[in-house]
Amino acid sequence: MGAGIGGLASAIRLAKQGFIVTVFEKNTYPGGKLSEITLGKFRFDKGPSLLTMPELIDELTVLSGYKTNFNYSKLKTITHYFFEDGTKIVAQDSAEALAKELKNKLNEDEQVVINHLKKSKFYYSTVADLFINQSLGKIKNFLNLKTLKALLNLNKLSLFSTMHAENSKLFKSKKTTQIFNRYATYNGSNPYKAPALLNIIPHLEFGLGAYLPEKGMHQITEHLYNMALFCGVTFKFNEHVEKIEVENKKVSGLISNGVLYKSALVVSDSDIHLVYKKMLPKKYYPTKLLSQEKSSSAYVFYWGIKKTFPELDLHNILFSENYKAEFNYLFEEKRPYVDPTIYINITSKFCQEDAPIGCENWFVMVNVPHNKSGDSIDYAADLRKNVIAKINRVLKTDIEALIIEEAILDPFDIEQQTSSFGGSLYGNASNNKFSAFLRHANYNNKIGGLYFVGGSVHPGGGIPLCLLSAKIVSNLIEEKKQSVFI
């Protein structure tokens, strides 16, 4: 169920294992959040805008036998950071380059920055194989040397400290702390509450590298979809799955658009909140797990801009002056802050066909609370006004006069289009020291034949983790050779 990237990757892997695979997707297109939108002569990636660990896609290409390569480039410049006082930080693709930039602009100790990124790499090497690359629900997975290695290093993993507490102790400048705190937003969390172990994330960019597909992020979806078709996967679009059938504590099929499809296995790429609330008997609902705090959502403006901005790059951040207040508003007040941090993604910097000559395609995103009530968004006008005012202040421009195309995506739209509960982008937030280990497993231990992939389950949200969830599930059911519906 679902043709997001987790579902697409699962379809490819299971088809290659010999399963008969049918993908049910409620939309008319594949990709879920990783889709695209066109406004006039401007093209935009609709959702995720950063690619790390592209080798996971290469692995699927080799596995499928598909002859068309997935082409992408490593970014030399990762992000441009802007502060209200005029400070601009250009984050290059190495620890040494970043350290030198922070030394020159913020008088930061270069070795402290380098050591911090080394520690990020240590976190990754210690916990990735144990807690990210495999199922957490199988005891046998922990009876090995990887577990022993992690146990011996528990005191070095900062398990009882927050991200902000660790970062603020290290760095002289509040701006440096803010730059590294930002990585909590990569899984929709609050750096003032999230565990310091989330400092693992910078290694993905500065250690493993940040990339861009040659035709933009939607190329990932197109490549996975074409691979799945090549592998013999059947797709049923405009299919609304209403119920997962369970008999004798085992999956027996599903009902979509009123039609029963029999199957002994079901792999869900839908938000688990929706699956349990709408598709399964109430007795299976994991109340404690699904009542945990949800991740943030996003409010996105897609703007066709009739000007080019040489001071901007592919990824740009305009920081709030009071980061702590911003996160307090997101997770406590449940409203966007008056001075929001703004992310601007401009793929036309690299993919020139995404905008007319002399123009740019701006994907402008602000973190906002997930829409728990399910009601329409009541802060839209104020948010747009605050976003425009901040862009004008920081970039010394009149951006309103330059917008010639516009569309928006808010938490209500995200929920309607992707079934993400309240528009939450990553399922549960990681705002306590155990939350990263309390995500829903990739299977249901009370219903045989029911498996889960995607951002709302283990190992988490984001492109590489969704792809890894598919790999975990395919390994879990490798020995079962039956028809499978996704």
Output the structural class. Answer: alpha/beta
Strand content: 15-25%
Please summarize the sheet with the most strands.
7 strands, mixed
What is the count of β-strands?
20
Contiguous low-pLDDT stretches (5 residues minimum) are none
- Roughly what percent helix? 25-40%
- Overall geometry comes to globular
Can you describe this structure?
It contains 15 helices and 20 strands. With 486 residues, it is of the alpha/beta class. It has a 7-stranded mixed sheet with strand order 7-6-15-16-17-14-18. Strand 6 (77-82) and strand 7 (88-92) form a beta hairpin. The radius of gyration is 22 Å and the shape is globular. The model has no long low-confidence stretch (mean pLDDT 91).
Protein traits:
486 residues; alpha/beta; seven-stranded mixed β-sheet; five-stranded parallel β-sheet; 20% strand; globular
